[in-house]
Model the fold of this input.
Amino acid sequence: MRWWNSRKREEDLERELAADLELETQEQQESGLSPEDARIAARRALGNAALWKEDVREAWGWRFLERLQQDLIYGLRGMRRNPGFTATAVLSLALGIGAKAPITLLFPGTC
Done:
């Protein structure tokens, strides 16, 4: 299944969870619970559906890139909000890299 079929994968995941919940509900009813109590017991037995979905999405393999994108956007927003801090950080990095580069070139064994 391709990454661009994310809507279809989400629909499949919803159907899978609904089917698992229905099967567990039937098993609970067969053990003697009322339909409402069986539904509650099935939800309890299966656990947190949102957590299941997150675990499945993590297994799909694209969650890392989504998190990286979210982190980059968050960082860029923070840099835009604090231009003084951004300028200080960029200047510090530039000075550090600029000082390190000639020393490394002139004295290769020291660094």
The CA atoms of residues 26 and 43 lie 12 Å apart.
